[in-house]
TrEMBL record:
GO CC, alphabetical: catalytic step 2 spliceosome; nucleolus
GO terms of molecular function: actin filament binding
Residue span of region Disordered: 1-55, 215-239
Broad class of the protein's primary localization: nucleus
Coiled coil: none
Basic residues: bias regions: 8-23
Keywords: Nucleus
Biased composition (Basic and acidic residues): 215-224
InterPro entries: Actin-crosslinking, FRG1
Protein location: Nucleus, Nucleolus
Protein name (database record): FRG1-like family-domain-containing protein
Similarity comment text for this entry: Belongs to the FRG1 family.
């Protein structure tokens, strides 16, 4: 039987037209799954979805829907808002069915989600309730933490400080830290009058991945990383401490850095007050 000749292509060819060569792939790459297209598909599959809850690596990434919880013992607790009683609620989270770690926690109710907003370029944030009319988390000079104000001001500003172990401390305008406090009857509540960062002042924070990527995109457009508060700690064993007098404090170098930052803040406030006074005297 005669060999069958391959059919001739009927496509028209013009004089001087370059012939495109067919691209061949290395059989080994295709079989092993190491080809460029296969790697791109794998990277796309491994990347978290926009709505997935992730931990922020930088303070500037904390924005949008925010889940704040604390690794309390015997079960972790979350900071939520009770819309019925119009106040902050601190209650234990439900146990995970698959027995996952505390880092796997995600919000299960809308009341457990806060909405983080920030002024562009500022290091402070505002935390607004995700339910009801939207009230801001605030702290007065006595350390009383509430969520009953519809307008934002200095008492509604918080500075997130990302610690070495990925946890976050929140500093208010009075340079005090948000903490979990045990009140009468064994109930837990929020306070804002702590001078040091220990077990009670450390929180896990989760945000949605699309807002984390949004922060990265803003930094790329600006050509750098925004200045952000950070704290260098020598150890993270304070996670396993219990309630009571055993309070973890930051290192001596960190205290010096915080004192310098506080002094700079006070000098800036004094300068602004002086300028405003001079302007008022000028117009009198």
């Amino acid at each position: 039987m005669a060999d069958v000749k391959p059919s001739k292509s009927l496509r028209l060819k013009f004089k001087g037209e370059k012939v495109k060569k067919k691209r061949t792939r290395d059989d080994d790459e295709v079989e092993d799954g190491t080809g460029p297209s296969r790697r791109r598909r794998h990277d796309a599959q491994d990347a978290p979805s926009p709505a997935q809850w992730v931990h922020p690596d930088q303070a500037t990434e904390i924005r949008g829907p925010t889940f704040i919880f604390h690794p309390s013992d015997p079960s972790p607790i979350c900071v939520s808002f009770d819309g019925t009683r119009n106040r902050i609620a601190v209650h234990p989270l439900e146990k995970l069915e698959d027995g996952g770690s505390v880092l796997d926690r995600t919000p299960t109710e809308v009341s457990q989600v806060w909405v983080t907003t920030r002024v562009a370029g500022a290091g402070t944030i505002n935390l607004r309730t995700g339910t009801g009319e939207g009230k801001f988390l605030s702290c007065d000079k006595h350390g009383l933490v509430t969520a009953d104000r519809e307008a934002r001001g200095p008492q509604e500003e918080w500075t997130p400080v990302v610690l070495e172990d990925g946890m976050v401390a929140f500093m208010n305008v009075y340079e005090k830290y948000l903490s979990i406090d045990e009140v009468a009857g064994g109930q837990l509540a929020l306070r804002g009058d702590s001078d040091t960062v220990g077990f009670q002042e450390r929180f896990y924070v989760k945000i949605q991945n699309k807002y984390k990527q949004e922060a990265h995109e803003e930094e790329r457009k600006k050509g750098g990383v925004l200045d952000q508060p950070s704290m260098d700690e020598k150890g993270t064993n304070s996670i396993y401490q219990a309630w009571g007098a055993g309070r973890s404090v930051v290192s001596g170098d960190d205290k010096k850095e915080l004192k310098r930052a506080r002094k700079a803040g006070r000098l800036a406030e004094a300068l602004l007050d002086r300028r405003s006074k001079l302007k008022s005297d000028r117009f009198c």
